[in-house]
């Protein structure tokens, strides 16, 4: 057997076990009921892999400020590598002016992130390109939304994007993308 044939045989045999481990795939998703907000559940070949949720935390009637909890859960054996939220509030034309601020991250130490306004004034972007060690478990962020006036309900639309790596599959990554939509209840003291 010549050396080239031997190398080709060894390379081919060693590549077979890695065939299912390499590459990237987009996760399928579906909306599931959530009493306090909105949730998207993502699946990899039918297996629940991640859930991204937006949950109303509390409402402060004195100043018209809402709490909003954004959370990414992912199954054991995966690692959250990056995520991005684009928050559109209000998500309807002619709605109130809304200021979104970051209250507190759940994990410590928190990775570097970008938090700011998008090209449109009503769009707020949270971008964490490298989550680091805190990506081993669920990751949550608490936001405050302050409206200058309060209509019957404040519609909020959140575009979510994230990537996961799989600990048991070498060089395998999965990406998820979708939209969460929810309405925050109106301020009982609001003037329409």
Key structural traits:
six-stranded antiparallel beta sheet; globular; six-stranded mixed beta sheet; 1 helix; disordered C terminus; 192 residues; disordered N terminus; mainly beta
Give the secondary structure arrangement, pairings included.
Layout: H1 3-15, E1 23-26, E2 28-31, E3 37-44, E4 47-60, E5 65-74, E6 78-88, E7 98-105, E8 114-117, E9 123-128, E10 139-147, E11 153-166, E12 172-185
Parallel strand pairs: 1-12
Antiparallel strand pairs: 2-3, 3-4, 4-5, 5-10, 6-9, 6-11, 7-10, 8-9, 11-12
How large is the share of residues in beta strands?
A: over 45%
Major sheet summary line: 6 strands, mixed
**What ranges have pLDDT less than 50 throughout 5 or more consecutive residues?**
3-22, 187-192
Oligomer: single chain
Order of helices and strands: HEEEEEEEEEEEE
Task: Write a brief caption for the model.
By secondary structure, the chain is mainly beta. It has one helix spanning 3-15; strands spanning 23-26, 28-31, 37-44, 47-60, 65-74, 78-88, 98-105, 114-117, 123-128, 139-147, 153-166, 172-185.
Task: Describe the model.
This protein has 192 residues and is mainly beta. It has one helix at 3-15, and strands spanning 23-26, 28-31, 37-44, 47-60, 65-74, 78-88, 98-105, 114-117, 123-128, 139-147, 153-166, 172-185. The chain is globular. The N and C termini lie far apart (85 Å). The relative contact order is 0.24. The model is unreliable at 3-22 and 187-192 (pLDDT under 50).
């Amino acid at each position: 057997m010549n050396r080239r044939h031997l190398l080709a045989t060894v390379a081919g045999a060693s590549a077979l076990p890695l065939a299912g481990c390499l590459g990237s795939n987009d996760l399928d998703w579906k909306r599931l009921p959530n009493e306090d907000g909105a949730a998207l559940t993502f699946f990899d070949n039918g297996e629940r892999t991640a859930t991204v949720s937006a949950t109303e935390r509390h409402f402060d009637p004195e100043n018209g400020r809402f709490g909003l909890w954004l959370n990414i859960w992912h199954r054991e054996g995966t690692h959250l590598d990056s995520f991005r939220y684009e928050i559109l509030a209000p998500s309807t034309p002619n709605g109130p002016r809304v200021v979104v601020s970051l209250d507190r991250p759940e994990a410590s130490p928190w990775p570097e992130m970008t938090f700011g306004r998008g090209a449109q004034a009503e769009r707020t972007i949270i971008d964490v390109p490298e989550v680091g060690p805190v990506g081993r478990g669920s990751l949550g962020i608490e936001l405050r939304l302050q409206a200058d006036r309060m209509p019957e309900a404040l519609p909020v639309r959140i575009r979510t994007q994230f990537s996961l790596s799989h600990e048991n599959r070498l060089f395998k990554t999965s990406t998820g993308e979708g939209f969460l939509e929810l309405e925050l209840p109106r301020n009982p003291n609001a003037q329409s």
